């Protein structure tokens, strides 16, 4: 059986050119991109600077011999390759299933080009079946949970494998909103970002330029 995540990760690595500063996404699909990029660096001698979007990706990139810099150590990025939890026909998406949405969004906002890599399950007609992650500061998180409950957003505080609140790389909590259907993503994004205590949300609207998706055992490129 085809490993779709590997297929699209390897395809994305073909878009990287010598001298680029490259945003390195987070998650099980981005993992394969990082491995494929490291292979190209070893085999072809590409000179690349990687900007990781999480501690996990920074560790992986270092293990693989990729030179890394933080987002504050580069002026801007040529390209970012990242996974996504869902995307629709407009290439709007939900990200943050892996908890790295904050730096993923900062890196995306400073990239000239953004490619998402996705297995076939990630394409949806309407966003929302995947719970929307909202990164919040820890203090006041109970109040935000109550607010979201009252709004009918069906919030849950994300927990780690031991049943404790999941803590992000930047020591925040994540509240997942179980919305099922997001009919007005731009309005929702506007509401969430103005709530005091919310650091960032996982709606990535009008950001991706391309999605590489696995379909029928081949990598298909969807361009905006
Ligand atoms: O947004 C993310 C992490 O914060 C990931 O890109 C997203 O969760 C997809 O992950 P995977 O490739 O493991 O399905």
Compact summary:
This protein is an alpha/beta fold. 29% of the residues lie in helices and 26% in strands.
What report would you give on this structure?
The structure is a single chain. This protein has 224 residues and is α/β, with parallel strands linked by helices. It folds into two domains: 4-124 and 205-223, Rossmann fold (3-Layer(aba) Sandwich), CATH 3.40.50.1360; 132-201, Alpha-Beta Plaits, CATH 3.30.70.260. The chain is 29% helix and 26% strand. The protein is built from six helices and 13 strands. The strands form three sheets. Strands 2-1-3-6-12-13 form a six-stranded mixed beta sheet. A four-stranded antiparallel beta sheet has the order 8-9-7-10. Strands 4-5-11 form a three-stranded antiparallel beta sheet, with no helix packed on it. α1 (4-13) packs across α2. The radius of gyration is 17 Å and the shape is globular. It starts with a helix and ends with a strand. Bound molecules: ribulose-5-phosphate.
Helix-strand blueprint:
Layout (H helix, E strand, L loop, with lengths): L3 H10 L7 E4 L3 H17 L4 E4 L2 H9 L13 E7 L2 E2 L5 E2 L6 H9 L1 E8 L13 E5 L4 H11 L3 E3 L15 E5 L7 H9 L4 E4 L1 E2 L5 E6 L2 E6 L1
Parallel strand pairs: 1-2, 1-3, 3-6, 6-12
Antiparallel strand pairs: 4-5, 5-11, 7-9, 7-10, 8-9, 12-13
Helix pairs in contact: 1-2
InterPro entries: NagB/RpiA_transferase-like, Ribose5P_isomerase_typA_subgr, Ribose5P_isomerase_type_A
Pfam family, one: Rib_5-P_isom_A
Protein name: Ribose-5-phosphate isomerase A
């Amino acid at each position: 059986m085809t490993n779709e995540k590997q297929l699209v990760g390897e395809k994305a690595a073909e878009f990287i050119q010598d001298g680029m500063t490259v945003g390195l996404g987070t998650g099980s699909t981005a993992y394969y991109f990082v491995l494929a990029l490291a292979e190209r660096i070893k085999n072809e001698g590409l000179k690349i600077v990687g900007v990781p979007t999480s501690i996990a990706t920074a560790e992986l990139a270092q293990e693989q011999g990729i030179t890394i810099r933080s987002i504050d150590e580069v002026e801007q990025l040529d390209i970012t390759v990242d996974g996504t939890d869902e995307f629709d026909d407009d290439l709007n998406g939900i990200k943050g299933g892996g908890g790295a949405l904050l730096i993923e969004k900062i890196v995306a906002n400073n990239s000239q080009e953004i490619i998402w890599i996705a297995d076939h399950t990630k394409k949806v007609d309407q966003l929302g079946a995947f719970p929307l992650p909202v990164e919040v500061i820890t203090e006041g998180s109970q109040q935000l949970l109550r607010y979201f409950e009252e709004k009918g957003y069906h919030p849950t505080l994300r927990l780690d494998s031991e049943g404790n609140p999941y803590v992000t790389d930047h020591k925040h909590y994540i509240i997942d909103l179980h919305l099922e259907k997001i009919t007005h993503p731009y309005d929702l994004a506007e509401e969430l970002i103005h709530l005091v205590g919310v650091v960032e949300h996982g709606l990535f609207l009008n950001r991706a330029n391309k999605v590489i998706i696995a379909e029928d055992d081949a990598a298909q490129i969807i361009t905006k």
